């Protein structure tokens, strides 16, 4: 089964990945999706009173279906890609909440465990393929590693965001400020420091998830807890509309690299 389209140009053969180019709009949509993962996950588990385990089962089924569609696709499709990202962030939310709250792992323990799994996934991917750069996600093996790594990063982000806002006592607004500052530092390193662009990409990718988690909590938590007390359904619907608008207004294309 061919999983990546190939195009031939004057400089040689180009292997087209099934993930989008990393641009400013990529990061904007990513933050909308991670915030949606928090409000959407909480809407199912809390507002619908289905609980973390049932919510995790529902979103895990959606995640596996979306990844299967991604693997079957012959080329990059923006709608499918961002649907899969949303699936990873919603199941990451419910899975982290289930481990932290229902199983009693705690935010700190959950964050450390997930960080270890994330680093192990990146390490195995690098050992197996020689690169974890997104422009190499053009084979089934690399794509599976890509989505497994994203799943761990999204779940880690939920636990880390909750730990920062709750256990560390910074509150939701404080958590937003902390993660925005860290992302600003990563962006500054991208432009002015000699640090691997791949390392900076994954650092930013990981940090956008806890940012989305605390923004989501800021939107829908009660006023007494430092939130804006918005309806989870309203917040989620608004975020879905923003994601759709971004995809429609700003067309995206797959990242490309010369095939070795």
SSE series: EEHHHHHHHHE
Order of strands across the main sheet: 1-2-3
- Mean pLDDT over the residues: 87
Give the termini distance in whole angstroms.
Answer: 20 Å
Helix tally equals 8
Uncertain stretches of 5 or more adjacent residues = 1-13
What helical percentage do the residues reach?
Answer: over 70%
Strand residues, percent:
5-15%
> Which word captures the global form?
globular
Report the C-alpha radius of gyration, rounded: 18 Å
Largest sheet: 3 strands, antiparallel
Number of domains: 1
What structural class do the secondary elements suggest? mainly alpha
What's the total number of strands? 3
Task: Give a description of the structure.
There is one protein chain. The protein is mainly alpha-helical and 260 residues long. It has helices spanning 24-47, 51-72, 78-102, 107-129, 140-167, 171-192, 197-220, 232-249, and strands spanning 6-9, 12-20, 254-258. The chain has one domain (15-249). 72% of the residues lie in helices and 7% in strands. A three-stranded antiparallel sheet has the order 1-2-3, with no helix packed on it.
């Amino acid at each position: 089964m061919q999983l990546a389209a190939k195009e031939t140009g004057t400089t040689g053969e180009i292997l087209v990945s099934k993930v989008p180019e990393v641009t400013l709009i990529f990061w904007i949509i990513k933050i909308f999706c991670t915030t949606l993962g928090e409000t959407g996950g909480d809407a199912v588990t809390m507002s619908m009173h289905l609980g973390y385990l049932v919510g995790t089962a529902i979103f895990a089924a959606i995640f596996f279906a979306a990844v299967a569609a991604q693997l079957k696709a012959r080329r990059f499709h923006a709608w499918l890609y961002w649907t899969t990202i949303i699936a990873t962030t919603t199941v990451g939310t419910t899975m982290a909440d289930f481990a932290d709250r229902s199983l009693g792992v705690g935010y700190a323990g959950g964050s450390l465990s997930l960080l270890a799994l994330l680093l192990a996934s990146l390490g195995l991917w690098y050992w197996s393929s020689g690169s974890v750069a997104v422009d190499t996600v053009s084979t089934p093996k690399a794509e599976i590693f890509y989505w497994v790594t994203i799943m761990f990063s999204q779940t880690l982000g939920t636990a880390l965001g909750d730990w920062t806002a709750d256990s560390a006592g910074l509150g939701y607004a404080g958590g937003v400020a902390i993660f925005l500052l860290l992302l600003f530092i990563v962006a500054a390193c991208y432009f002015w420091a000699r640090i691997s662009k791949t390392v900076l990409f994954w650092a930013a990718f990981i940090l956008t998830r806890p940012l989305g988690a605390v923004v989501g909590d800021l939107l829908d938590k009660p006023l007494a807890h430092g939130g804006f007390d918005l309806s989870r359904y309203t917040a989620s619907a608004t975020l879905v509309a923003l994601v759709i608008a971004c995809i429609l207004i700003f067309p995206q294309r797959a990242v490309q690299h010369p095939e070795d």
